[in-house]
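Extended Data, panel c. Modelled sequence:
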Amino acid sequence: MCPCAAPAFPAQALTPPSLRTLFNLLINVRPIFLLPLLLAAAGAAHAEPAIDLPALIECRQSVSEFAALAPIANDPLKAVTLGWRPLPQGNLFMAEYMLNTPIEVFGHSADHIAMAGGTIIAILDLADPRPLAKQLELETGYDADGKFMAGRELVSRDVVDAKSGEALIESVILGVSTVKSHPGKTLAGCTYSLDQPAEGEAPAAPPAAPVTPDGQVPAAPSA
């Protein structure tokens, strides 16, 4: 299968909160910090899981796999052991790396990647991001003033923290953009997040089984 095809996730149109998140991240490249839950999950792992970098960048993974990057973001030496050479920051909000071995993402070779909070991207030698955004069937959110942003929310599902019981929303967003700090380049990658539901939008609980006045659950009727 061609890696440039749009990943096979249940896609949906960007909701306003998702679009704002994508706009803030990919246009302004502002930091989106991982939730403590995500960092804790990475720190609790007994063995460091293998990192499938192309799959992470192409949104073919989940928040749990993305958590494996947390130690790397906090310790440049861990990146070096993976063959990632830390680069001087061309943008204050991104940690950039040069890969000793190039990877292929979205049908293009890439040896320059970056992380910003919950986002992992490839920095591609593409002056015009629009053909790639069209190829990936992304929704254009901004295209003016020399900036471009397009994205698509591939995953938005209700999850529950197994330890605290807290209701969360897992979101996976595929994005393509440009940024002034990297002229002539296209930023393409994925944002993984665990967010608390907006007030009044908590995930619905499964319907409770009916209970009779004596406190018993009635038997199901026979066929």
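The helical segments are 16-26, 36-43, 53-57, 63-66, 70-74, 76-81, 130-135. This feature is highlighted in the accompanying rendering.
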